[in-house]
Amino acid sequence: MNPYRLAVPLALVLSGVTACKSGEPVGEQEPVNVIGKRSATAKTATTGATAAAIARPAKPGDVPAPSDVAAAPADAKLETSGLRTKVLKPGTGKEYPRSFDSVKVHYTGWTTDGNMFDSSIARGTPAEFPVDGVIKGWTEGLQLMVAGESRRYWIPADLAYGETATRPGAPFGPLVFDVELLEIQKGAEPPATPEDLLKPPATATKTKSGLTYRSLVKGKGKVHPKATDKVSVHYSGWSKDGKLFDSSVTRGKPAVFPLNGVIAGWTEGVQLMVQGDKVRFWIPGDLAYGDTAKRPGALAGQLVFDVELLEIQ
User: Fold this and answer.
1) What's the pLDDT tens digit per position in 224-248?
2) 102-151 pLDDT, tens per residue?
3) Is 263 a catalytic site residue?
4) For the chain, which terminus, N or C, has the lower number of CB atoms within 10 Å?
5) b/e per residue, 220-256, with b = 16+ CB within 10 A?
6) Residue 153 annotated to the active site
7) 235 part of the active site
8) What is the CATH number of domain 205-312?
9) Looking at domain 1-44+66-186, which of 3.30.470.20, 3.40.525.10, 3.90.1200.10, 3.10.50.40 is its CATH number?
10) Which residue is catalytic, options 155, 263, 283, 312?
11) Model-level pTM?
């Protein structure tokens, strides 16, 4: 998940993590493409059983739904989480992606009544994203696969986007995906969870807004960025349960974003830094995504980020 707008290049995340492009940190949490951005504003009172009521009409070029879209067959493998999968084509790879790796895939997603809501195949372009930057059912399913493999996922609502739509036209309820794993892109080992994750040390500084921070590495820069500047940073973010939900470090690519286009805790905090600084921030919910999750798996409450300011643009 990305702290910016979490835009994983597909209709998944999010854990989404994921919706700006991967590596653009901290704005609203939203996933992507046809599955749509995660919105905390619009909700409908529909349930998974009536997903068709908000599904878009079929279009030329849609990938037909499989015959078992309504329910997994008896030979599908059931995981303890409730995820069911079935290998459609064995792969030739020998390694499985890890949670901090990235992957390139082709995929198509349907609601259980057979309506296609997203497809990289229909777009003609594979999707690339971090394994832990998508919905839970995908994160689990991908780690069962090897390169070259095609697999069908039957994902229950609690491992996808929940039982109610978060915006008009968004998928919800149980979903079915066909996924072809094209490539595994190795990520760096994730950073260790901070020992002071739950409670800042007495030496940390707290601002009037409630943002708390402490310096990890002193930079040599002299200039602080303004809210209107773009910055290049490396960062890692943890939720209050110690889970690393996003990291440019594991992707091996710094994030570049406008400082006024991210969550309030980032906009304030990064302006306290100079080039070369590395700082740990404890960001309360009201400066991040709120104290209550907007959907299953969404970020909420206090978040902790380690941020290294590489460049002010």
Assistant:
1) 999 999 999 999 999 999 999 888 9
2) 999 999 999 999 999 999 999 999 999 989 889 999 999 999 999 999 99
3) yes
4) C
5) eeeeebeeebebbbbbbbbbeeeebbbbbbbbeebbb
6) no
7) yes
8) 3.10.50.40
9) 3.10.50.40
10) 263
11) 0.63
